[in-house]
Each structure stands twice: as structure tokens, then as C-alpha cells.
Amino acid sequence: MLIRLIYASRSAGMLSPVEVKDIVRSSQRNNGPLGVTGALILSNGIFLQCLEGDHRVVNALYHRILLDPRHREPAILSYKEIDQRLYGAWAMGLVSTTEAHRAIFLKYGAQAEFDPYEMRPAALELLFTDMVEHARPITA
Ligand SMILES: Cc1cc2nc3c(=O)[nH]c(=O)nc-3n(C[C@H](O)[C@H](O)[C@H](O)COP(=O)(O)O)c2cc1C
């Protein structure tokens, strides 16, 4: 069964660009062979990650990611069966903190600051759809 899991977490302190690159690099290395695709956003000190793949594989990966001390306060915001992947081409799409992307993040939230914890699952789906169309992945 193909599923999409979207969760948020807070970065533990200020992560350096090297630490963020390290996260993306290991994600790209590990997710490809697992058949997992997705995207990772970092904005306003909050990670928002979309993971797509077989439900057992995504669940196991999510629980492994939770053990990472670089983030805390994880919350699953959406978990659903899907027919098609949004991120068919990306093993782990992007990390973005740029102003251009911030505008997309804010478009789907009610808050003035990017706060995915307060966003509805449907809005999160639209956010990631928009990201696929308008954002280019940053390669680590
Ligand atoms: C917000 C966040 C998202 C992450 N996403 C992934 C991921 O999608 N895939 C992955 O393998 N590791 C991910 N990691 C990193 C893992 O926690 C772990 O460091 C990594 O898988 C270790 O890989 P390695 O043993 O190959 O070095 C993430 C870490 C953080 C903090």
C-alpha cells in the first residue's frame, strides 16, 4: 500500500548549513534504495517532511528519524493512502529557507509565520503540490 506521511518537528537549536546538508545527503542516500520519495522543508526553525512509499517502509523510516537528536516535538499531520506520488523523481527533494519559498509556505497557513503544526492536512497536501510545481530541489 502506497502512503504519504507528512510530519513536522522543531529543529533542536540552530542547525548549521553543514548539519542540514548532512541530513539531506543521508536522506537521499537511504531513501532511494527504500523506494521512498519526498521533500523536506526547513523554515522558521520547523522541519516539515513529506515521505511517500510503502506503508511499512515509511513507518519504519519515520520511527528511525524520530530517534535523531537534531529535532524534537514531532507530530504527524497527515497520513493517507495515495494512488500516485507527488515526488516520483526526488529521493528527498529539498531543504529550503529562501524568501521565495517562504511565500509559498505562508500561502497555505492562517498564521503570519510558517507554522505547519496549525495547518490542516488538506492545506499541507496543497503546499507540497505547489512546491513540486514551483520549487527546484536544492542538491546537497
Ligand atoms: C528532520 C529530519 C529528517 C530526516 N529525514 C531522513 C530521511 O528521510 N531519510 C533518512 O535516511 N534519514 C533522515 N534523517 C536522518 C536520520 O535521522 C539519520 O541521521 C540518518 O538516516 C542516518 O543515516 P546513515 O546511518 O546512513 O548515516 C532525517 C533527520 C532529520 C533531523
From TrEMBL:
Provide the BLUF domain boundaries. 2-93
State one molecular function term (GO): FAD binding
> In terms of domain of life, where is this protein from?
Bacteria
Write down what this protein is called.
Answer: BLUF domain-containing protein
At the highest ranks, the source species' classification is: Bacteria, Pseudomonadati, Pseudomonadota, Betaproteobacteria, Burkholderiales
